[in-house]
Write a structure and sequence with these properties.
The chain is mainly alpha-helical and 232 residues long. It has two domains: 151 residues; 60 residues, no CATH class. It is built from five helices and three strands; from the N terminus they run ααααβαββ. Strands 1-3-2 form a three-stranded mixed sheet, with helices on one face. Strand 2 and strand 3 form a beta hairpin. The longest helix is centred in the middle third of the chain and has 82 residues. It is elongated and about 120 Å long. The structure holds zinc ion (ZN). The site of zinc ion has 7 residues, from loops.
């Protein structure tokens, strides 16, 4: 490939474009925009699990309320018996039953207080989430507008550089240009590098026989990092 000068020129203009892209990417505006966007996406994905948890707590509360009602009814039945129970063995039986009911009530009380603390912590979590979501919605609104403005402020420069790249690109074989663009997308930069002490920038050695292929402005591909190599 004797397209060395064109490739180097292309890369020089591309470096300017890359600098703008990096400035935009490193800006506080973009960081705040991305942070809010990600938070809202994660929050939305958490909602079904939160709803499910709320349903589960409500179901548990219903079960406990039902049991409380049953025990209460049983206790009322016993208190209605009053003086009708004269027989000693019957009294012993009712005493045992009353004791069992008291035990059930105690256990139920424990479960209710556990549920109450679960509900309280779920409410706390929900409240915190809601506050954060509101703050992030505000941040998203503010910074998506600011980010759009930032991109617009650099649009003319980007357009001019892109037009120059297209112009230079016409002088480069399509296949070579595609390879360059692929590497650029893979965040390899610079894409075309000079052979230094018989090595590529990635450290790959080039045997003398292979180095001769570089004469006359030829460009070869590094087998290891797939950059384009040329001889200065
Ligand atoms: Zn290499």
């Amino acid at each position: 490939m004797a397209v060395l000068n064109e490739l180097l020129e292309y890369q020089k203009v591309d470096a300017e474009l890359r600098k703008i892209e990096q400035e935009i990417a490193a800006s506080d505006t973009r960081k705040k925009y991305v942070q809010a966007k990600k938070f809202l996406e994660v929050a939305a994905s958490k909602l079904p699990a939160q709803d499910e948890h709320a349903v589960e707590l409500r179901r548990l509360a219903q079960t406990l309320t039902e049991r409380y009602r049953e025990i209460k009814e049983s206790i009322e039945e016993y208190s209605d018996l009053g003086e009708e129970t004269e027989d000693g063995s019957e009294i012993a039986f009712y005493k045992r039953s009353a004791q069992a009911l008291a035990d059930s009530l105690r256990a139920l009380k424990g479960e209710i207080s556990k549920l109450a603390s679960e509900i309280a912590s779920a409410c706390e979590e929900y409240k915190k989430m809601k506050e954060q979501t509101i703050a992030m919605q505000r941040q998203f609104k503010e910074y998506s507008a600011a980010f759009k403005k930032l991109k617009e402020s650099r649009a003319a420069e980007i357009e001019a550089l892109t037009a120059r790249l297209d112009e230079i690109g016409k002088k480069i074989p399509k296949e070579t240009l595609e390879k360059y663009k692929t590497k650029r997308k893979e965040r390899i930069f610079p894409v075309i590098v000079p052979l230094t002490s018989g090595r590529c920038v990635c450290g790959m050695d080039f045997p003398i026989a292979q180095q001769s292929a570089l004469s006359g402005g030829n460009v070869i591909e590094c087998e290891h990092c797939h950059r384009f190599i040329y001889k200065e």
